[in-house]
Amino acid sequence: AKPTINSREILFNPLSKLITRVISSLNSTDASPQIKADAKGLADKIRGFGLSKPKAAPPADGTTPPDADFVSKSHLGFVQRADNFKSLIELLKTEPAYTPNEADLTTASLATL
């Protein structure tokens, strides 16, 4: 199981930087603000931005808050990241203005990855 996990980690390691480049490329187009916002939302899920555990204030009576208050919103599992990556590619395919000059940022290259 450990070699499989290591292989996945190696495969997913460069994903965050690639996603940042994709979003930068999209933002340089005249795509609609809604498409850009949707893409950024998916990108943030893939990269894990803004998805930390919520911080709840301790109850006034001094008791410990229930664990439900500390459920992680993170979607950084391999399956979740892959699903969000696929959703991002599908979104980019709907945007005719997304035509990056870099070959590795095209929707065809991203889908192959």
Give the helices and strands, then pairings.
Layout: H1 2-12, H2 15-27, H3 33-47, H4 78-93, H5 107-112
Could you explain the architecture of this structure?
This protein is mainly α. The chain has one domain (2-52, 69-112). Helices cover 54% and strands 0% of the residues. It has helices at 2-12, 15-27, 33-47, 78-93, 107-112.
Topology order in helix (H) and strand (E) letters: HHHHH
Number of helices: 5
Q: What is the strand tally?
A: 0
The radius of gyration over CA amounts to 18 Å
Straight-line distance between termini: 23 Å
Share of helix, binned: 40-55%
Structural class of the secondary elements? mainly alpha
Overall mean pLDDT: 84
Shape: flat
Low-confidence stretches: none
User: Approximately how much beta-strand content do the residues carry?
Assistant: under 5%
Oligomer: single chain
Number of domains: 1
Largest sheet descriptor: none
Briefly say what this structure is.
The protein has 113 residues and is mainly α.
Index terms:
single chain, mainly alpha
